[in-house]
Amino acid sequence: MNRILLLHDAVGEHAPPDEQDTLVQVSQIERSLTYSGHSVDCISFAEDLGVLENLLSSGTYDVVFNLVETFHGSRFLHTIPLLCEEKGIRYTGGNATSLFLTGDKLLAKRIMHLAGIPTPPWFDPKNLRDVDSFIGKPLIRKPRNQEASVGINDDSVFSCKTEREFREHLAYAEKHEMILEHYIEGDECNLSVTTEHGQLRIFPIAQMHFVDYPEGKPRIVGYEAKWIEDSFAYKHTVRSFTYEQEHPEVAAQLRTFVTSLWSLFDCRGYGRVDFRIDKHGNPFVLELNMNPCIARDSGYVAACAEAGLSYDETVSRIVQEALYG
User: Fold this and answer.
1) Is 132 among the domain residues?
2) pLDDT by residue (tens digit) across 23-33?
3) One-character DSSP codes across 192-239
4) What pLDDT is stored for residue 72 in this prediction?
5) Total domain count, the chain
6) Rounded to the nearest 10 degrees, what angle do helices 96-103 and 105-114 cross at?
7) pTM for the structure as a whole
């Protein structure tokens, strides 16, 4: 039996659905860990590092199950594993390096680009020569430091007919710490991954289908599709696991890129890589998400189930990897 500190975000009574989901995860994971014979304390992290440091120094816990998903957006999520490492306590999920590098999506895109891993072209205000390549093209606006599709909706996809219009969008993006990048029309896939005894394991490829979407409605997995259960997007965004059989060559590319990303960002724990594949079969990495949602209805858990793992096995293996590492 291990003594586990299940550390999670503090969630207010009127918090939005993506934050309320944290409490769903906490309840389900606590139940699973208890069923597996562990002793579990669930404690919320209210961004008081002194309190957390005292908890980690108490000698009470063997493992921190890290469910902290927002700390000034995703800017400081690496602080949790840093503190754990300093105190010599095991923890689940991504390490400080991977959480720091992937928590800033612009930094992550720059690293991918330098490493030759394709990611949708984004606008760099330092390179004014790029303006023309963003005029008349479908674009998407995304938060730089947020997870869970926060801030992404149908209005996030647009095109600009003039440079003036583009610069208005750019000013808005800069004010709200967002990225402007090319919108890749095509298939959307994601690969859930984990490490087992330090070795990377890639689960079956999931494809997101946008069923009966009307003409002109962006085919994106935005906030509504993830969290608003009575919305059109939520009901008509459907996951399947047949992509690998239907597109074996592209699937092989996706797996190669995931392996490269895992090494490039010095990852450990568990994560998910989101891709867009254009009409010519060219993949583009949208993002690498460390410590994705592991509620029972999450995409990560669905991929594990497709590989034959029960929910309890999935949670147990996350703890086992923390103890191994």
Assistant:
1) yes
2) 999 999 999 99
3) EEEEETTEEEEPPPEEEEETTPPTT------HHHHH-TTSHHHHHEEE
4) 85
5) 3
6) 100
7) 0.95
